[in-house]
Amino acid sequence: MIVSFRLNSRYTQTLQKPLDHKMWDTLSKYTSRVHSVTQSHNSMILEPLSLILLSCPLAPASLFPKLRRLTWHANVTPGAAEFLRMAFVPSLLSLEVLTSFVSPAFLLVLSSLGTFCPRLQSMTLGSRRAFDVSLNSSPFIVQPISQLHHLRDLEVWDLGIQGIQHIMLLQALREVTLDFRISSSSAWDRCLPSSLPGFQNLNLLVLNVDGFERPSNFLSSLTVVRTKKIGVGFTSQVLQSPVHVSTMFSQFFAILQEKCDNSMLESFTLFSFSKVLPKIPTDSGIFMSLRAFTNLIHLDIEKGCDISMSDEELYRLTGTWPKLQVLRISRCVTIDSDTAAVPTFHGLMHLLRLCPALISLALVIDTTKLDGIDLRSPGGELFYDHLKVLTLGNSVIDSPLNVALILSGLFPHLQQVSLGCWSTTPMKSLPQKGPAMEQWTLVNSFLRGFSVVRERPGRIVI
User: Fold this and answer.
1) What is the 3-state secondary structure (H, E, C) of 313-366?
2) Range of 154's domain?
3) CATH for 87
4) Positions of E strands within 3-78
5) Helices and strands (DSSP H and E) totals, the chain
6) Other beta carbons less than 10 A from residue 11's beta carbon
7) pTM listed for this prediction
8) How far is CA 136 from CA 145, 185, 190, 238, 355, in A?
9) What are the b/e assignments for 54-77, b being 16+ CB within 10 Å?
């Protein structure tokens, strides 16, 4: 038998005869040391290995008896299922599969996971493109998942009601990512009564969506969600929903408030998958349901939303989060809109009083409204040592010196405003990018100078 190994477009190795005992001993000597295997788009060696195993009766059950991590980022082609079956060993702790085609053989191999990989701790099953996987694949995946009692991290497409029930029974599970974007139909296309027990002790729950109807219906079907962190990622298809985006957001957050353990949630992140997705216009009222989570320490809603928020609305939103350490509301806002509002320095200072533990802040403000602010002592006797990262995005600015004086007075140890946001797609296209960056570069220059001549904490020598 002749098996060709095409390593790249220029070189080919050919196996002229089956391997004998000595050859197998040599091969096994090295492969038995392998702890991690990765199959990517350009890797062509793993599949021929499976053919060798099939052709040689002297082959062991697996070439990789000590394998701990298997990553498969490639199509499941003929022969791949045989390799995957060989790679499913008791030592396997992490499995990551990203493919654009699910074959029957692949699903049959997956159905053996619970038996051959009982110690699996992390599993990711994903797709590069939308295709209806849930109805066809769920019966093959649900059963092995229910046998993985050591599983801590799970990322998987929508497995339907039965699959969710099995996931909820895994006591070791701490991080769950559910992808509602893949299948064309789902059990969550309609609202179901609260019949599922929910998640009891998670560190992280992530929902990836192309609309908010399915995740809203999913959450409505749960009795409770007890998790420390929640993340929601959405695609551009949310803009194609017949329901207004603001209405979808409001309904989703209201359901989240009702189902989630308010005292347990510490972090919430809302983000867009698309770098070119038009920012969705929203107002602060949509997020007011999040006020119920009084132990929040991390809130990031800056990516994908164009949030209109006045000083008063900023006070109201953040007033129940005294433990907040990270707040990212915006770094790019359409501030020239007739309806958009942004906070001022007054709002920023009030925010610091409400949330004194902040270490990272991203917020677009209007730095030109300085009425009533003492440039020598903007915070009075108060100053804030904890803040390490300040991102002001495309905030309106006309006097870099005044802005630097205020920031230096509020944050004695701050040496620069983060300008990394200007390299992101939304801000690259802003017509005022060049002049604005020059102004903020001057602000940073002043801040570094002030740090040298500072007479005492919280005061600037002018």
Assistant:
1) HHHHHHCCCCCCCEEECCCCCCCCCCCCCCCEHHHHHHHHHHCCCCCEEECCCE
2) 21-189
3) 3.80.10
4) 3-6, 12-15, 36-39, 69-73
5) 14, 17
6) 8
7) 0.88
8) 16, 11, 20, 26, 49
9) eebeebeebbbeebbbbbbebebe
Helix (H, G, I), strand (E, B) or coil at 451: helix
- Count of the separate structural domains present in the chain: 1
| Cα–Cα distance for residue pair 406/373, rounded to 1 Å | 9
The number of beta carbons lying within 10 Å of the beta carbon of residue 437 is: 15
Residue 57 lies in a domain: yes
Q: Which two tokens stand for residue 125?
A: 């099953």
Any domain includes 174: yes
The 3-class secondary structure across 146-211, one letter per residue, is HHCCCCCEEEEECCHHHHHHHHHCCCCCCEEEEECCCCCCCHHHCCCCCCEEEEEEEEEEEEEECC
Q: Is residue 421 part of a domain?
A: no
Outline where 359-399 has alpha helix (H): none
99-153 pLDDT, tens digit each: 777 777 788 888 899 999 999 999 998 876 544 454 567 788 888 999 999 999 9
pLDDT tens column, 13-35: 556 666 677 777 787 788 888 89
Is residue 203 in a domain?
no
Q: What share of the chain is helix, strand, coil (3-state, %, to 5)?
A: 35, 20, 45
